[in-house]
Amino acid sequence: MKTIGIIGGMSAESTVLYYQIINRETNARLGGNHSADIVMHSVDFEKIVRLQKAGDWAAAGAVLAESARKLEGMGADVLVLATNTMHKIADVIEQAVRIPLLHVVDATAAAVKAKGLSRVGLLGTRFTMSDGFYSERMAKQGVEIRMPSENEQAEIHRIIFEELCLNKIQAGSKAYYQQVVRRLQEQGAEGVILGCTEIGLLLKENDCPLPLFDSAEIHALAAVDFALS
Predict the structure, then answer these.
(1) 198-226 tens-digit pLDDT
(2) Set 165, 196, 197, 208: catalytic member
(3) What residues contact residue 23 under an 8 Å CB cut-off, 6+ apart?
(4) What is the pLDDT of residues 19-67, one digit of tens each?
(5) Which residue is catalytic, options 26, 83, 125, 128?
(6) Does the UniProt entry include the keyword Isomerase (predicted)?
(7) Residue 83 catalytic?
(8) In what order do the strands lie in the sheet with 101-102?
(9) How far apart are CA 192 and CA 168, in angstroms?
């Protein structure tokens, strides 16, 4: 079994999901009392949030690159960045270490294509939806992205940071996300990517008329695949 290094804390709520999914899947595959070989470094999310708001992605990248080096020094064989948004600076992390980084977009694109779909909606932070790094990498893998409107993006973003990252699950916010999913369906989306690792706390598969691709679960399962390969 290979050692999985998790760069976490963005937010702590979603990092808990990664830890649970990875360990439960490892046990399901190996049986007995088996669990995953994991090392984790959890950053202070407030520091990252302030750098995001300031547009200082270089400084944010430096923080996560240092986290990656710590995990490599602790014996990690592979890295998982437990957040979608910060994959914006994935290249900085990759350049800081010698071990591979499992990219959330690659894992999610593979899951979409495995279902035979090629046109999906995307829910995530404002940065993930509007900065291009996510949709462009998806496009290179043959997956076309449908985006919510600018006003919808603003409210989706607010709910993530003011509610989901703080484990506040509100019925009204769930209803709002469901409305956005229906509008994405009207735009031709065949499925929807939950492109923020906290959205799975709010939306489940039976809540929506389209297939949902929970990036946190998909990414965590890809880490298990690597560790047990």
Answers:
(1) 999 999 989 999 999 999 999 999 999 99
(2) 196
(3) 35, 36, 38
(4) 999 999 999 999 999 999 999 999 999 999 999 999 999 999 999 999 9
(5) 83
(6) yes
(7) yes
(8) 38-42, 4-8, 78-81, 101-102
(9) 22
